[in-house]
Amino acid sequence: MNAPRPSRIVLHKKSQELEVGYEDGTTYRLPAEYLRVHSPSAEVQGHGKPVLIGGKRNVAINEVQGVGRYAVKLVFNDGHDTGLYSWDVLADLGQNHAQYWATYEQRLADMRMSRDSDVVKLAALQPKKYIPKPPPAS
């Protein structure tokens, strides 16, 4: 991707949004919950299959730390601090915010999880019963 380096990154403590701005005037306001559940860390991204994280509606960002000239590290109040948000990752999360958020909410619904709880309801894990259709009448 090779996204440009942001010209400003501001943590808005009251709204818990990370504002990422660029020289061309593009600005993204990314909620802490969105950033937490889409963390680029191995814990969340897994090994090729992202892990669904629920129960983060009230998560907050405690600190934003610069990492060289290529990323920021976000320290969340739930103890998560292993994701490095490169400029490419931040640009991708900003550009695709609506789509990624809709997909996340659908995945939560499919697993009967919520933004308020990370508990998976057992019914979501039960296999669906297969009832074969009778053969067509001849």
Automatic annotation (TrEMBL):
It holds the Pfam family GBBH-like_N. Residues 9-90 form the Gamma-butyrobetaine hydroxylase-like N-terminal domain. GO terms for molecular function: metal ion binding. Keywords: Iron, Metal-binding. Gene3D superfamilies: 3.30.2020.30. It comes from the Bacteria. PANTHER family: OS02G0197800 PROTEIN. This is DUF971 family protein. It comes from Panacagrimonas perspica. The lineage of its organism: Bacteria, Pseudomonadati, Pseudomonadota, Gammaproteobacteria, Nevskiales.
